[in-house]
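Working notes for the structural subgroup meeting. M.R. asked for a predicted model of this chain before we commit to crystallization trials. I am recording the input and output together here so anyone reviewing the notebook later can reproduce the run.

Input as submitted:
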Amino acid sequence: MTRPLYHEDSYLKEFHATIVEKVDGGVILHQSAFYPGGGGQPSDEGILKAGSIEYSVTRIKRNYASLIHVIDGETPEIGTEITGVINWGRRYQLMRTHTGLHILCGIIWRDYGALVTGGDMQPLKARMDFELEHMSADFAKDVEQKVNAEVAASRPVSTDFLEREQAMKIPDLIRTKINLLPTDIKQIRVVNIHNLDMQADGGTHVANTTEVGLIRVVGHESKGRINKRLRIEIADK
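Returned structure, recorded in token form:
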């Protein structure tokens, strides 16, 4: 089992750990700040340092409760103490993007009552699909103005773990058309953009909406009769 340090501190850039298992093409650590991906957010990249030797981590894979750090080339041995270093520039861009999507989702739910039907993100660009019948350039422009108003509102972003029974009592906690939460998860991680959006989510986020930057709605598409897509890009202010 790998202790998920990224759930304790999304801003953790380096950490110390011990290799507890070797697998084909990678290693498992007893704890890690590398996010393994999920909910549309890609996994982290970075390096593991053992003394003067550096190992390139190209991605993270889940193996039940453990995380496999996929390494390009030879892997260090079990028992090796390492320092993990996140590719922070990429991670922080993904944190900004992920929070930006939650702002978008919060606006669409608050003002239009539409559920999410899909989504994906890369650093500073993303798309999200909604259960909407209509989409237009005017709609996209209106949404862009609203999301940037929420960025400027300097809303705190916090996370908490709730017992499943307690979490499921929160109205509209699941914003996706299909509930993707596995039934065996007993504690639900909740991300709260205060006074705007509260969702079950396992990804990494910034601590305040002002960190997101300028959100531009750069595209809108119809993906079906009641399935519409918005594309966003994020820039520094």
